[in-house]
């Protein structure tokens, strides 16, 4: 392939597909690449894909999630009404301590709610069809799927992928597999999770969340049963980033092949999800329809990373006093030319990604600022302070 592109997006999960959607309003020279045979196939395919408020006292992360939730629910409803069910969510405290904590948050609620049964109903709560949303977001851009990018190198005015694909601007939305980001400060850990879809004779009229989430049911005419999504488990495996990358490359969300995320763990997680779901709502005549496993990308401070990637070598070379703990302004840090990232969206990918993708595209094309707390700069500054 010798064609040149203005924009190449590597990673076709919810973040990459969201970037593709917003970029397509400005450019028709876009290539979306993914190592999987379909878009929305990795961690995004294994996501519960629930959109629900973050509860708590005011802080910057809560503000971020609240703004993203408002943006994304409205965005999905306006553009993909058939792929979102905005039927609300009932949030049920896990225990008395959890209930007391919830009640302490009431003065700080960002969304209307009312008591319902043992829980609290939020009208904004929603659930989306994860893979269909990704397909719809990326439908108007050129794709190169089932393709592994193993080398990324700057060549004059272009970035060169695997030595033969040229892109003026590269946007990395690669989740937990960060081998292409050759920067030690870029600290991401995989949070492995599983979701299951089940057939059940039980009709579920709303989304529910307690120790897991249960989706509004859809009726399957052929099976004559309801389909319900249950998700998702969380595992931080005690292994190196390199091992995690091997797992991420090896795992197939429908046919498990990872050497660390074992079949035994998969079976245990299925049982755990069913037990937790039945603690919320009794599901009758359950039959597992499918299970999906993926590694969500989590940052050390829970905030996502958006924007240009800092070139640590050139920055320290220019400002050696950083090694002594000195500070400099963000705009003085040296970034890699035309290399951007969205990462670290964790378990809130379907809430955060459209919001962040819009911010990044507006930053690239219209020079609009990105708020400081989600820039990649903070990771570099902490790394320098800790290691030098």
UniProtKB/TrEMBL annotation:
Question: Keywords in UniProt for this one?
Answer: Oxidoreductase
Domain FAD dependent oxidoreductase, residue spans = 6-362
Which InterPro entries has this protein been placed in?
FAD-dep_OxRdtase (IPR006076), FAD/NAD-bd_sf (IPR036188)
Keyword field contains Oxidoreductase? yes
Q: Which domain of life is it from?
A: Bacteria
Q: Where are the transmembrane segments?
A: none
Q: Which one of the record's GO molecular function terms can you name?
A: oxidoreductase activity
One Gene Ontology term, aspect cellular component: cytoplasm
Q: What is this protein called?
A: FAD-dependent oxidoreductase
UniProt organism field:
Arcobacter arenosus
